[in-house]
Inverse folding.
């Protein structure tokens, strides 16, 4: 009998890429549309793994429910693992694997798309010309060349973004807990303190993980220290930004533009078609009302190449586990 995998939060595009990759593995994948919850965990009965994405929460209750169904592995089909209670998983003896890198280009290029759209107001120009309005007032942007980008976190995604921005002729300053001096020298950028980064950057882009230390790092105190009119880009995690502080900053014109691929309460909305419903999240509704804000629905990763890599790595992570091999992409917490 083939090894069963219970796949939660399935979208048609997941099925397409996983079915294609699974031709080489032959797992028995059971696709479920709903999220993994303590109640739905029963669907994973007898499975060698559950496969979940960013907006499924594997908290203590879910992990206990998985334990009760004797599911030994949580396979994340994403890089971030802030949605998993690693301590609870360790306590229950459940392994967690993830896809550390699938296409850093996808996310870096999406960050650039947000920057260029906001700067040159493509989102507004698109509607204007469709409506026969060929006027330019309100659409003025700035040359990226010569401006300063401040990058927080200089891992895989940020490094690609930095090379692209250097290609535009931008100055780049960055902050990371673990600076990569060799890379800085190679691309011609400077590591600075957060204080200096806030003070000198025309565009600030967030690429660090969500941790206790980085949660709400962009709050009203941080925004006050930034250049007036700064553009903020977040393709990291929603809770890196205190959304109300951002809204205040936008209303006071301290923040000139914001490009958000992630939002702290995205779980109820992102990836779902809510177009025939009323948005009952006032914070999200306010964000969507600014003409200098673009919200995308956590789509930074969403390229053909990235989806193929995600499927291939996830299934090979599961195969390693099933065969008792060392896990290349395990994430482990303290008990
Ligand atoms: P990475 O692990 O290669 O890089 C993260 C960097 O952040 C590292 O250099 C690390 O030293 C640094 N860092 C850690 N704590 C920090 C702190 N307190 N302050 C400053 N820097 C700190 O990660 P990668 O692959 O570049 O991804 C970055 C983030 O992007 C992920 O954590 C994830 O949240 C997000 N992401 C978003 C996607 C999307 O679709 N929008 C898709 C993939 C990842």
């Amino acid at each position: 009998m083939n090894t069963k995998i219970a796949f939660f939060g399935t979208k048609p595009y997941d099925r397409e890429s996983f079915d294609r990759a699974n031709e080489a593995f032959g797992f028995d994948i059971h696709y479920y549309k709903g999220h993994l919850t303590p109640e739905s965990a029963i669907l994973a009965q007898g499975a060698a793994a559950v496969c979940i994405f960013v907006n499924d929460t594997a908290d203590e209750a879910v992990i206990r429910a998985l334990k009760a169904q004797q599911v030994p592995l949580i396979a994340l089909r994403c890089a971030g693992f802030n949605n998993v209670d690693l301590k609870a998983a360790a306590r229950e003896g459940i392994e967690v694997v993830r896809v550390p890198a699938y296409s850093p280009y996808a996310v870096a290029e999406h960050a650039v798309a947000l920057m260029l759209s906001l700067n040159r107001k493509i989102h507004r120009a698109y509607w204007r010309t469709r409506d026969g309005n060929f006027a330019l007032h309100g659409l003025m942007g700035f040359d990226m060349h010569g401006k300063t980008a401040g990058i927080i976190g200089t891992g895989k995604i940020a490094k690609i973004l930095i090379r692209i921005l250097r290609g535009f002729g931008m100055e780049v300053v960055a902050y990371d807990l673990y600076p990569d001096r060799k890379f800085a020298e190679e691309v011609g950028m400077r590591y600075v303190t957060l204080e200096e980064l806030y003070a000198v950057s025309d565009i600030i882009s967030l690429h660090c993980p969500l941790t206790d230390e980085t949660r709400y790092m962009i709050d009203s105190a941080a925004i006050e220290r930034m250049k007036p009119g700064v553009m903020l880009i977040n393709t990291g995690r929603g809770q890196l930004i205190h959304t109300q502080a951002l809204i205040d900053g936008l209303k006071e014109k301290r923040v000139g533009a914001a490009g958000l691929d992630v939002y702290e309460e995205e779980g109820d909305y992102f990836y779902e078609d809510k177009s025939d419903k009323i948005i009952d999240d006032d914070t999200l509704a306010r964000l969507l009302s600014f003409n200098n804000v673009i919200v995308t629905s956590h789509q930074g990763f969403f390229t053909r190449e990235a989806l193929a890599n995600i499927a291939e790595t996830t299934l090979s992570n599961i195969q390693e586990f099933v065969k008792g091999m060392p896990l290349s992409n395990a994430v482990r917490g303290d008990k």
Summary: The pocket of NAI is lined by residues 79-80, 101, 104, 107, 152-158, 175-178, 207-211, 213-214, 235-237, 261-262, 298, 300-301 (CB under 6 Å). The chain is about 35% helix and 15% strand. The first strand starts at residue 4 and ends at 7. The chain has a mean pLDDT of 96.
